[in-house]
Design a protein that fits this description.
Helix content is about 15%, strand content about 30%. It has 13 helices and 49 strands. The protein has a six-stranded antiparallel sheet with strand order 3-2-6-11-8-9, with no helix packed on it. It has a six-stranded parallel sheet with strand order 25-24-23-31-29-28. Strands 1, 4, 7, 10 and 12 form a five-stranded antiparallel sheet that branches.
Length: about 950
């Protein structure tokens, strides 16, 4: 009895010490060397590996691949991710990349090692005597995926979150002294199947890594502690409603106070609240929920993209004036709400200009956990005019929310699931509850961050999705009003979820450039049926040729073996020296497409925003080079952030042009508009416009009457009307609209051609048939213009639109188009009367859209066409639209575009190009250097391409089959 009393007194003393000696930084870091062992047969639990010293070691935080642990990459590697184009495994053309020692897969980046299964991590720790009586928590910021933890011989639990820290209360297993902590990590897809292409786990992006990253530590604190602190700003009432869960893990009752206060920390003017005190009484082992209103007082600073003011909420548990525990929580005073079809931030309309983040971190293979890394990403996005980011089927670590808070970014994290391709929702599978659990964890850990404005359950599901997602949305609308909710981010063919507060959908995006390009149309018709905000899902997806200089940047866990394969194949096709030119030319077209699609949304009243795919490249799904930035968020050289922000910004001048190609008997008429989403209206804004030629000389200019502009899209400013009859030669003009005393400006290229092209007197033989007459002219040393439009056989399978490749040709198994822009020999005198740059621009649309291309597989090495379509980098065929050559004794110019003397007024650009080429051929400047035989020229019209793409499979991507009945899961039924 006396012994028990003594032990009890010792406990009370330890409790008193824990309550009075609390320090916020009472932690024991666990980073560094850990013992390690793989457990591919999953026998470690039954054999009690936690009792023994493991045999290997790694450094943490980190992954197995970072530590070069796991299996080498082979053709038998069992990847986590769908492969739709399996031709790599069978294609004789790619056989050398399937040989051991030279494995180069095209689907995604290649990790240093690959491992899916169980691995064990172990570390010996020494608990200080000062921790006696304290609550001790093992904190693992992010693991992948399922963890089980043992302290010495005692198991403490299991956790499997992909979105939040794994925290284990191991107080009862730790006493002062030395202990062994063993962590078993399992990254297999088991009963809970989030979908193998989910960006939370897939090899397409971060990879299905095994390890622990971020903060790793033992945390010691008083046994009276905050289980949860959630801040609900009320801007109208100028208060912060604070919901707190307090727990007493001791065996004694606790009587004290909870004290709340808030102080701004990142603003020039410091604002601080008066403390609010609330009595709290807790029995032993009791939890209690409190809701406390914290008046913010005068001088409250609101958070938004223009003024990202933040506060630290200090919540303290006090007993007799002594702090027993204390916690700081960042929050922003803001309300992100919806009115009609518009998002509001603190009552002011906001337009979302976003990109999709797919967890692209090639150096580590897992997401960054430092605020500095995320600040870099958000600042780059901000420089390109963006204010929003969606996280496709994953949720970033806390550092991303902190950085977004500081830069004023509106975030849409998602449940870590793409429940498709073997998974589905609404069928009573474990994934159904898991998405509720995960999003609840997201709200608990990140819900106070001002940037966490939107929530989606994931991406493009299969299953009984409408019923499930309606219930999911209703649950969250009732539970937490700090953000707005949608079901999942989906393509245009997915069913509409009626209860969604806003829609993230495809189907109302893209460029209708099967018709003549213009800048008048908008997306009003497509969004008219939606009464809630409509956000464009994965807008863009316009491809660019690979930047092979990027290969050297892969110095970490991933190597760009896909880029190496593409580069070697380009070399094998004899075009290695054109790689950079292909990048720059295709990049200019890509930027043009993004500009026009973004401007179309900005012309659309009532459009709520867009989510690009993307500002940066996507490394997987066959290698989707859809960004003007690479996977490292670095520029590629063909457009700067400043240039991008001219058409993507808080304020963007717009021009309504019925077309971009005119003749000089027409009048240039353009409606000038503006999209304005600034912090305040533009008062008495002065809009200026200029029309300059390609030498920069001003042709004409004007100024509109001052106008006050409120927030909105497609706001009319004025009309431009200017006759073009003073322009007598083929001319490229630039129309620029700017706003006086601001940095906002935008511009558009237009082309003006003579209504009646100059007559060309020439002895050039024009023909659409490579017949004996053409051969005879060439043999006599004459000149022949051969128009083979519609007759090409060698290259018939290559489909060219003016628009570039969408996403990439591998993921959709060579679905057209196959061409991603053109490289043009713009310095050639052939284009003297047809102004052009070295890349596709809108004057080429009527010439190239749906035109045939020619495959020059038998032409001499180094032969370069005048106009060279750039093939998909998966095939790298040497293509031509227009080429010139010496043939026999004569000179030949061949076009597979429909160029000829009979072109009418409906094709002024094609007519002018034909005229320019004929002028060139009639001159002494027409002197081709490349020499080709008559038979090689003719073979293009006779023989098919020697190498034909073969998919070796007949199934189509699941993305094309969103119907849940077609997409039943292969397992977990």
């Amino acid at each position: 009895m006396l012994k028990n009393i003594s032990l009890f007194r010792i406990y009370l003393l330890a409790l008193f010490v824990a309550l009075t000696a609390f320090k916020a930084d009472d932690t024991l870091p666990l980073n560094g060397t850990w013992l390690f062992q793989t457990d591919l047969d999953d026998k470690g639990v039954t054999e009690k590996w936690f009792l023994n010293k493991l045999t290997d070691q790694v450094n943490l935080p980190g992954s197995m691949a970072q530590n070069l642990k796991g299996d080498d990459i082979t053709l038998k590697t069992k990847w986590t991710g769908s492969i739709y184009d399996s031709s790599f495994y069978f294609n004789p053309h790619l056989a050398k990349y399937r040989k051991p020692g030279n494995i180069k897969i095209p689907f995604w980046l290649t990790p240093a090692k690959h491992y899916v299964g169980v691995a064990w991590y172990q570390k010996q720790v020494t608990i200080p005597k000062t921790w006696a009586g304290k609550r001790v928590v093992l904190f693992l910021e992010r693991t992948h995926t399922e963890t089980r933890v043992w302290v010495d011989d005692k198991e403490t639990g299991m956790q499997n979150s992909l979105v939040a820290p794994h925290e284990y209360d191991i107080t009862q297993h730790l006493t002062p002294g030395t202990h062994r902590i063993s962590i078993r990590i399992d990254n297999r897809i088991k009963d809970i199947n989030v979908g193998p292409d989910s960006h939370s786990i897939t090899d397409h992006t971060q990879g299905n890594w095994n390890g622990i990253i971020g903060k790793m530590q033992l945390q010691a604190a008083a046994p009276i502690y905050f289980e949860d602190v959630q801040v609900y700003p009320d801007v109208k009432a100028n208060t912060a409603r604070v919901k707190i869960q307090v727990h007493n893990s001791s065996i004694q009752a606790f009587n004290g106070q909870v004290i709340l206060s808030a102080k701004s920390f990142n603003s020039k003017i410091i604002h601080q609240t008066q403390p609010v005190k609330t009595v709290i009484n807790l029995a032993a082992a009791e939890s209690k929920a409190l809701e406390i209103s914290l008046p913010m007082g005068k001088g409250t600073q609101l958070w938004d993209e223009f003024n990202p003011a933040l506060y630290n909420l200090t919540a303290a548990i006090s007993q007799k004036g002594v702090a027993a525990n204390q916690q700081q929580t960042e929050f922003g005073m803001r309300e992100f709400t919806i009115k009609g079809n518009q998002f509001l931030i603190n009552g002011r309309p906001v337009f979302l200009r976003g990109t999709v983040n797919n967890c692209e971190f090639p150096l580590t293979g897992y997401p960054a956990t430092s605020v500095e890394d995320w600040l870099r990403i958000f600042n780059i996005a901000r420089a390109h005019g963006l204010n929003h980011m969606r996280f496709h089927s994953w949720c970033p670590p806390e550092a991303a929310f902190k950085a977004a808070d500081r830069t004023g970014f509106y975030l849409q994290p998602e449940g870590p699931s793409w429940p498709n391709h073997g998974s589905s929702i609404g069928r009573k599978l474990p994934i159904d509850q898991y998405l509720y659990d995960e999003t609840n964890r997201m709200a608990k850990y990140y819900g106070n961050y001002a940037s966490f404005c939107m929530l989606s359950a994931g991406n493009e599901p299969a299953g009984n999705q409408v019923q499930y997602l309606n219930a999911f949305i209703d649950y969250w609308k009732k539970k937490d009003t700090r953000r707005v909710y949608t079901g999942m981010s989906v393509g245009g063919s997915w069913p509409v979820v009626p209860d969604a507060e806003y829609q993230v959908r495809g189907g109302v995006r893209g460029l209708a450039w099967d018709k003549r390009p213009e800048s008048i149309s908008d997306f009003s018709e497509g969004i008219a049926k939606f009464a809630v905000p409509f956000v464009a899902h994965e807008m863009g997806q316009w491809c660019v040729f690979p930047d092979f200089k990027e290969i050297k940047e892969y110095t970490g866990v991933y190597k760009a073996k896909n880029f190496e394969l593409f580069e070697e194949d380009l070399k094998d096709q004899g075009m290695a020296n054109q790689a950079h030119d292909f990048l720059m030319a295709s990049g200019k077209l890509q930027a043009l497409c993004y500009k026009n699609e973004i401007e179309k949304t900005l012309r659309t009243p009532g459009y709520a925003g867009f989510q690009l795919l993307g500002l940066q490249d996507f490394p997987g799904q066959g290698t989707a080079l859809v960004g003007v930035l690479n996977a490292f968020w670095k520029e590629k050289g063909y457009i700067t952030p400043k240039e991008y922000a001219r058409f993507c910004n808080t304020t963007v001048p717009l021009a309504q042009l019925p077309k971009f190609v005119f003749t000089n008997n027409e009048t240039l008429e353009a409606g000038i508009m503006v999209a304005h989403w600034g912090k305040a209206p533009l008062n008495n804004a002065v809009f200026k416009w200029t029309l300059k030629n390609d030498k920069g000389a001003v042709i004409t200019q004007g100024v509109f009457q001052p106008k006050s502009i409120t927030q909105g899209n497609g706001i009319p400013v004025g009309q431009i009307k200017w006759p073009l009859n003073t322009i007598t030669q083929a001319t490229k003009l630039k129309l620029e609209v700017s706003i006086a005393n601001t940095t906002f400006a935008n511009d558009w290229n237009i082309w003006v051609y003579p209504a009646k092209p100059a007559e060309v007197k020439t002895e050039v033989y024009y023909t659409t048939t490579l017949d004996d007459n053409a051969k005879a002219v060439l043999n006599k040393g004459g000149k022949v213009f051969l128009n083979v439009a519609g007759q090409v056989v060698k290259g018939k399978e290559v489909v060219m639109h003016f628009l570039p490749v969408f996403w990439n040709t591998s993921w959709f198994k060579m679905r057209p188009p196959h061409v991603t822009g053109m490289l043009i020999q713009d310095k050639s005198p052939a284009f003297e009367s047809f102004p052009t740059d070295f890349h596709s621009d809108l004057q080429w649309w009527e010439i190239t859209n749906r035109a045939q291309v020619m495959v020059l597989e038998d032409f001499p090495a180094g032969f370069k066409p005048l106009v060279q379509p750039i093939d998909t980098w998966f095939l790298n065929r040497r293509l031509a639209l227009i080429y010139e050559a010496k043939v026999g004794n004569g000179k030949l110019l061949v076009s597979s575009a429909g160029l000829g003397p009979a072109l009418g007024d409906d094709k002024p650009a094609a007519r002018q190009l034909f005229n320019s080429l004929m002028q060139y051929m009639a001159s002494d400047k027409f002197n081709p250097t490349g020499e080709v035989s008559f038979d090689v020229v003719k073979d293009i019209l006779v023989s098919p391409t020697k190498y034909q793409f073969n998919t070796f499979t007949k199934d189509s991507p699941d993305e094309l089959k969103p119907n849940s009945n077609q997409n039943k899961p292969k397992s977990n039924e």
